[in-house]
Give the backbone structure.
Amino acid sequence: MPARAGLFAYRTVEIVQLDALRLMRLRDATDKWIKPQITGNGLLHSGLALYRHACMELLAVTAIRFLAIVMTGLALIAPGAHVFELLRKMALPEAQYHIVQDIYRGWWIVGLLLPAALIANAALAIAVRDDGSARGLAIGAAALLLINLIVFAVWTLPVNRVTSDWTVHLPDWEALRRQWEYSHAVNAVITLAAFCASTLAALHRPS
């Protein structure tokens, strides 16, 4: 009976289909984990250990997939908001525009979602490394988020500094406004592309 129970526990691994390539790798490892203990309770314990290992590994990969989608989606909210308000803000006179800009105080916290999403997608690329398509999409998402941070550092952040976060009125404020608003719009497109790539990477399964 223990031997039969062990064989049953081992074979249940084959019904876990969430990540076929990882299960194949686990099955290939049975020579190391199972054959040294092919009698009595040893087989039972080895089969159960293999089953638990497979479940935990699949659960970890699923959690990483979920976090990559959620973090990238959250990172899209702020730049998306800038796009939706772009046309109306570009038509505002100087005084009103500076007043409106005050609503962004404290938004640096939202900006932390970008590096968090980058890390999540990098982790996803590692987690799905056996799936070439998913790995490429995850790397692409992480690269796009890195480009987002570069665009912010090169074009958006200098405007924040020279205007002291739009508390200082400058003669060339309209040029600064264009640089600030359009850089956010570009980053919205970049982040949307990253979100699409991250979602496709998380949902992809090898054929």
